[in-house]
Amino acid sequence: MKINLEKLCSPAIWAEGPVWLPSENAIIFSDVKGNQMFCWSEGDDVSLWRQNSNYVNGNALDNEERVVSCEHGRRGISRTEKDGSVIMLVDKIDGKRFNSPNDVVVRSDGTIWFTDPPYGIISDEEGYKSESQIIGCYVYCYDPNDNKISIATNDVQRPNGLAFSPDEKWLYVADMSIADFPLHGRHELRIYPVQGKTLGAGKHFVTVSPGFPDGFCVDKFGNIYCSCLDGILIFNKFGKKIHKIAVPERTSNCTFGGINGDQLYITATTSLYRASFRW
């Protein structure tokens, strides 16, 4: 595999949540600690996409190419409409506020799946310091068609990134609880069978090191591109490590984009990178 890594811009304090907008040939990403969002496109370079973003972290596109975002500030899942307005989709379960939704994916049936660790409420650095109203950190499934929310699984300690397999029969979830529990925590990707709007029994898929897994994505062949301390680890669908993309900053997330969808956009600390490669 031949890889060319280039730094595209460095406007952020903590860059996260990259999402590709096909109709605009542009990438949107969050600056969680800066409480803003940026847009980068070829030729136009980087521009401010949203100020006062409510500490948005992860982002995804729905089936109508609207940006769905995890807001630490309002502790919910919002959606940016075509006219630029932002609406809150869901911020509670059984009347209790979420912790701080972190990462999100949208399934082809329109359901929105997201993780809810506490990182936006443990200090004022990435949200607003608050007490948790929920006894744990779960993966949720929200259906905007009927406005129903369900706990997909509670089999995680500190869920972070998540992504579906190409056939959407499996959901991968990052558990980075080693950051909070150095002796007993996990630094792994777990895999769960999708059963409607919930998940079946999960199991360990791969251990991620150095550091721990944050955001990640899956290509059309089922290969997983997962952030770690110093780059992107690439695993095949059987969990075998097949390559690593070294990145010179602490790496947070990645997504595919570009005209042909074959370029990997990587957020890492202050910067947005692009990896172009050939197998």
Automatic annotation (TrEMBL):
- Which UniProt keywords are listed? Hydrolase, Metal-binding, Zinc
Which positions does UniProt annotate for a divalent metal cation binding? E16, N160, D214
List the active-site residues.
D214 (proton donor/acceptor)
**Is-annotated flag, keyword Hydrolase?**
yes
Q: State how the cofactor is bound.
A: Binds 1 divalent metal cation per subunit.
Supply the Gene3D superfamilies for this chain: TolB, C-terminal domain (2.120.10.30)
Q: Which GO terms describe its molecular function?
A: gluconolactonase activity; metal ion binding
Q: Where does substrate bind?
A: N102, E125
InterPro entries in alphabetical order: 6-blade_b-propeller_TolB-like, SGL, SMP-30, SMP-30/CGR1_Lactonase
List the cofactors: Zn(2+)
Report if keyword Hydrolase is assigned.
yes
| Positions of the SMP-30/Gluconolactonase/LRE-like region domain | 14-269
Q: What is its EC number?
A: 3.1.1.17
- Protein name in the entry: Gluconolactonase
Organism of origin: Xenorhabdus bovienii str. puntauvense
